[in-house]
Amino acid sequence: MRKLLSYLFALVLVFSIGLTGCSSNTASSANGLTGNYQQDTLALISSLREAINLPSDAPEKSASEAEAKQIINKFASRYRRDNSVATLSSFTTIRTALNALAGHYSSYPNRPIPQKLKTRLEQEFKQAEAALRRES
């Protein structure tokens, strides 16, 4: 009888973990992304623009940079293996911008973003937004 209860408990446990682990709704809300590529990309661009354009002496600058790093990681991990998104020109453009910004944050964590990089990022953000409009 004890062995039967043990098997039953294990089966219920596996079943409940399997159901909660398969729910995409909880995964989307946990990482802050909606699952809609266009909405997520526009939100990402808006958030990164705010982080980039903050003055270097702003008190929330370090928190904003940390949030930008997290957003970059979440976006990249969510969409890099999605074949329906990987071939879009907006995705390749935004990935280029994300790689440049993440490279700066990891190589020069205490330095402000150079104006040349800010200009390049803004250009790539505009290209990605234009590509998103074309793709919709």
From TrEMBL:
HAMAP family the record matches: PSII_Psb27
NCBIfam families recorded: PS_II_psb27
Role noted for this protein: Plays a role in the repair and/or biogenesis of the calcium-manganese-oxide cluster on the lumenal face of the thylakoid membrane. Its presence in a photosystem II (PSII) preparation prevents binding of some small extrinsic subunits and thus assembly of calcium-manganese-oxide cluster.
Keywords per UniProt: Lipoprotein, Membrane, Palmitate, Signal, Thylakoid
Topological type in the membrane: Lipid-anchor
Signal peptide bounds: 1-20
Gene responsible for this protein: psb27
Annotated source species: Almyronema epifaneia S1
Keyword Secreted: no
Oligomer status and interactors: Monomer. Forms a complex with a monomeric, partially assembled PSII. This is probably the complex in which D1 is assembled and/or replaced.
Broad class of the protein's primary localization: membrane
Key word Hydrolase present: no
Family in the record: Belongs to the Psb27 family.
Protein name: Photosystem II lipoprotein Psb27
Subcellular location: Cellular thylakoid membrane
